């Protein structure tokens, strides 16, 4: 007779069974309450299927007849993404140093974190609406929007990388009496540069996608062309624009992925 083999059993996420089942029941009741109280007009949902059929029926085949308008809109989006990435990354570097606890005094640290939190608090569409109201319709509002968007992401990630560096090099240079800026350039920058390059490439890719979204509210780029196409019920032209956006995003994703592999 052979003894039964001991088997490992994964422990539950919440060890106390009473607490665990209470959490499960509360979660189920909450989701049921949310689903039951959502203001959904099912008749409009059913009617929406018919309207969606008309939109997709009018979109095929996609029309590339106004390719000049499409190319102009896309090139404008590309310009917005490049300018916003350059501006956002340059501004993110000092803000990241301000928001890194190991290199910034406490008041500066709080100020840096506050700037990052504000930049991350709003969706780019909301920021675009504000800038469109402030500086008017067009690509300049898009550039300003995506600069704020870039700061929120790049500065946060870069600050976390600065806090993870090997601080021994910094302490050695400080002990030797090296000035602050020289310490930053020779002890910190070499350690964060690979992450900085990777973040810049990723943010350019992200800004290219976001430029299509903010254009819908009047911040220029291919998004404005897409919104106009929908406004004129040119669904076939709108589908052509969507296909180009997807193709460009796929291409940029492939290129940025290859560059990140070489940098890493």
UniProtKB/TrEMBL annotation:
Q: Where's it found, cell-wise?
A: Cell membrane
- Which membrane topology term applies here? Multi-pass membrane protein
Q: Which residues form the ABC transmembrane type-1 domain?
A: 74-256
Q: Quick one: a GO cellular component term? A: plasma membrane
Keywords, ordered alphabetically: Cell membrane, Membrane, Transmembrane, Transmembrane helix, Transport
**Membrane spanning segments where?**
21-40, 80-104, 125-152, 172-189, 210-231, 237-255
Example GO molecular function: ABC-type phosphonate transporter activity
* Main localization of the protein described in the UniProt heading: membrane
Per its UniProt record, what InterPro entries does this chain match? MetI-like (IPR000515), MetI-like_sf (IPR035906), PhnE/PtxC (IPR005769)
Could you tell me which PROSITE patterns the record lists for this protein? ABC_TM1
UniProt family annotation: Belongs to the binding-protein-dependent transport system permease family.
Task: Quote the protein name from its UniProt record.
Answer: Phosphonate ABC transporter, permease protein PhnE
Species in which this protein is naturally found: Notoacmeibacter ruber
Identify the gene encoding this protein.
phnE
């Amino acid at each position: 007779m052979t003894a039964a083999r001991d088997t490992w059993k994964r422990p539950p996420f919440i060890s106390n069974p009473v607490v665990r089942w209470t959490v499960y029941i509360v979660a189920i009741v909450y989701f049921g309450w949310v689903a039951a109280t959502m203001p959904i007009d099912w008749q409009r949902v059913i009617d929406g299927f018919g309207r969606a059929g008309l939109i997709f029926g009018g979109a095929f085949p996609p029309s590339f007849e106004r390719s000049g308008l499409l190319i102009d809109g896309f090139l404008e989006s590309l310009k917005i993404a490049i300018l916003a990435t350059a501006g956002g990354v340059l501004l993110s570097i000092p803000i990241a140093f301000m928001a890194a606890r190991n290199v910034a005094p406490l008041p500066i640290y709080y100020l840096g974190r506050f700037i990052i939190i504000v930049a991350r608090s709003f969706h780019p569409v909301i920021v675009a609406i504000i800038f469109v109201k402030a500086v008017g319709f067009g690509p300049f509002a898009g550039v300003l929007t995506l600069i704020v968007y870039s700061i929120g992401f790049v500065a946060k990630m870069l600050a976390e990388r600065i806090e993870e560096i090997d601080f021994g090099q910094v302490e050695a240079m400080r002990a030797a009496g090296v000035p602050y800026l020289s310490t930053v350039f020779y002890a910190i920058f070499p350690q964060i540069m690979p992450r900085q390059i990777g973040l810049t490439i990723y943010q350019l890719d992200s800004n290219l996608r976001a430029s299509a979204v903010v254009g819908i509210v009047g911040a220029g780029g291919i998004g404005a062309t897409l919104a106009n196409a929908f406004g004129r019920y040119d669904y076939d032209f709108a589908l052509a624009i969507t296909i180009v956006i997807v193709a460009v995003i796929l291409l940029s994703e492939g290129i940025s992925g290859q560059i990140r592999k070489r940098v890493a």
